[in-house]
Amino acid sequence: MKRNKSLPLTETVFYILLALKEPMHGYLIMQEVEELSNGDVRIAAGTLYGAIDNLLKLKYIKSVPSDDKRRKVYARTELGNKILRLDTERMDHMIQMTKLQ
Q1: Residue 10 has what pLDDT?
Q2: pLDDT of residue 1
Q3: pLDDT, position 98
Q4: Phi and psi at residue 62, to the nearest 5°
Q5: 20-58 pLDDT, tens per residue?
Q6: Fewest CB within a 10 Å sphere: which of 13, 36, 74, 93?
Q7: For the whole model, what pTM was predicted?
């Protein structure tokens, strides 16, 4: 498997992308990340919006229209789906190699 220079994702970025299985706003992303990680990952607002800015620049997520004009809503892009899948495959491979030991 050829190594992707964007991998590995940080734990925070991984969980943000994972949380965006459907479009959602920042506060909901923070709650979803905490739930998905069983409370192990708690993202502060500043960390979240810094990560969101970076993910927007990388085109892993995009801003989508919302009925609520007070909140920005984000969704994964196809590239975001791909990078999440690649990182999951990378981790699966490491787990399989560990089981062989």
Answers
A1: 95
A2: 53
A3: 94
A4: -140, 155
A5: 999 999 999 999 999 999 999 999 999 999 999 999 999
A6: 93
A7: 0.92
Q: How big is the CA angle at 15 (ends 36 and 48), to the nearest 5 degrees?
A: 115
Q: Assign residue 38 a region (left: φ > 0; alpha: ψ between -120 and 50; beta: otherwise).
A: left
Helix, strand, or coil (residue 72): coil
The candidate with the shortest Cα–Cα distance to 58, out of 88, 72, 42, 78, is 78
C-alpha–C-alpha distance, residues 23 and 18, integer Å = 11
CA distance 94 to 71: 38
Name which residue leads in pLDDT, 38 or 4: 38
Is 11-99 CATH 1.10.10.10? yes
- Please tell me the distance from the alpha carbon of residue 13 to that of residue 20, in angstroms, as a whole number: 11
Hey, what are 49's tokens? 């919006």
Is the distance from CB of 50 to CB of 31 less than 8 angstroms?
no
- Rounded to the nearest 10 degrees, the angle between the axes of helix 45-58 and helix 26-36 is 100
Length of the chain: 101
